[in-house]
């Protein structure tokens, strides 16, 4: 009888060390609801985007960046510089109001984007552009 109890102990100990199951995260299923573009002044452009299913600010901000990159290419420029982005969420709809400057040459600053590279990355990530 004692032997049988000892034989079970290693099994119980090993089972107790198993990794607990982690609940899987719901699949990311964004719904992109369009872009509104406003040319503010020469090279200063505002982008308003809306989407549902975002995981947070980064998803809707990236959507605005993708729109800015495509718009930059449409205008015949190669680069954009991020000025500001405001993100809100109301009734399940995420919105970003972003402003960028666009230019043919790499602008000064640390928040610049190469439009061609960004548009390619957006396509690979299935994020629509303008």
Number of domains as seen in the coordinates: 1
Helix content: 25-40%
Helix-strand pattern: HEEHEEEH
The DSSP helix count reads 3
Strand content: 35-45%
Named at the architecture level, the CATH assignment is 2-Layer Sandwich
Coarse structural class: alpha+beta
Question: What radius of gyration results from the CA coordinates?
Answer: 24 Å
Number of strands: 5
How would you state the average pLDDT, rounded?
86
The major beta sheet can be summarized as:
5 strands, antiparallel
The end-to-end span amounts to: 75 Å
Strand order of the largest sheet: 1-2-4-3-5
List its salient traits:
130 residues; alpha+beta; Gyrase A, domain 2; 5-stranded antiparallel beta sheet; 5 strands; 34% helix; disordered N terminus
Summary, kept brief:
The chain is α+β, with helices and mostly antiparallel strands and 130 residues long. The protein contains three helices and five strands; from the N terminus they run αββαβββα.
Descriptive notes:
With 130 residues, this protein is of the alpha+beta class. The chain has one domain: Gyrase A, domain 2 (2-Layer Sandwich). 34% of the residues lie in helices and 35% in strands. The chain is built from 3 helices and 5 strands, in the order H-E-E-H-E-E-E-H. A 5-stranded antiparallel β-sheet has the order 1-2-4-3-5. Strand 3 (79-90) and strand 4 form a beta hairpin. Helix 2 crosses helix 3. The radius of gyration is 24 Å and the shape is globular. Mean pLDDT is 86; it is low at 1-16.
Write the layout of secondary structure elements.
Blueprint: H1 2-17, E1 31-41, E2 44-52, H2 57-74, E3 79-90, E4 93-103, E5 112-114, H3 115-124
Antiparallel strand pairs: 1-2, 2-4, 3-4, 3-5
